[in-house]
Amino acid sequence: MDIVFIKQLQVDTVIGVYDWEKSIQQRLLLDLALTADQRSAAASDDIGLTLDYAVIAEKVTALITAQPIELIETVAEKVASMLLAEFATSKVEVTVSKPGAVPRAQTVGVHIVRTAPAAQLQQEQH
Ligand SMILES: Nc1nc2c(c(=O)[nH]1)N=C([C@H](O)[C@@H](O)CO)CN2
């Protein structure tokens, strides 16, 4: 199946468990993959028939920066839920990295895969 993706989307926000993290902004990097058949968009050359990655990037950034969050797992789950609810996609993969969180590691993060409920999948096929 086809995938529309965004790699290494930078989002600066208040993120972290500890008190010292609640008064600073830290950078998260997001990799997103949204599964959706792209054949009709390609055949018609119509942005309205695909998943607009610019719109996705804006909505994801707005969602994450709307309020402080403690866990990157929460970020990933919120993003996956929003993408499934607001875009015509059957499956999303969300990777949230927090570079700099562990000094001796290049980066740390979480990767989740979520699928649309069966009812939503049936709607998209018709
Ligand atoms: N699995 C996780 N482990 C940790 C998280 C997290 O969000 N998920 N967060 C922290 C702290 O906020 C850390 O990033 C501060 O440097 C620790 N472990």
TrEMBL record:
SMART domains the UniProt entry points to: FolB
Highest rank taxon of the organism: Bacteria
GO molecular function: dihydroneopterin aldolase activity; isomerase activity
Entry keyword Lyase: yes
Alphabetized UniProt keyword annotations: Folate biosynthesis, Isomerase, Lyase
EC number in record: 4.1.2.25
Pathway per the UniProt entry: Cofactor biosynthesis; tetrahydrofolate biosynthesis; 2-amino-4-hydroxy-6-hydroxymethyl-7,8-dihydropteridine diphosphate from 7,8-dihydroneopterin triphosphate: step 3/4
InterPro entries assigned to the protein according to its UniProt record, in alphabetical order: Dihydroneopterin_aldolase (IPR006156), FolB_dom (IPR006157), GTP-CH-I_C/QueF (IPR043133)
Isomerase as UniProt keyword: yes
Any one biological process term the GO annotation gives: folic acid biosynthetic process
Transmembrane segments annotated in the record for this chain: none
One cellular-component annotation, GO: cytoplasm
Enzyme class: lyase
Annotated Dihydroneopterin aldolase/epimerase domain residues: 4-114
NCBIfam families, alphabetized: folB, folB_dom
Role this protein plays: Catalyzes the conversion of 7,8-dihydroneopterin to 6-hydroxymethyl-7,8-dihydropterin.
Family: Belongs to the DHNA family.
Protein name: 7,8-dihydroneopterin aldolase
Taxonomic lineage from the root: Bacteria, Pseudomonadati, Pseudomonadota, Gammaproteobacteria, Chromatiales
Gene that this sequence comes from: folB
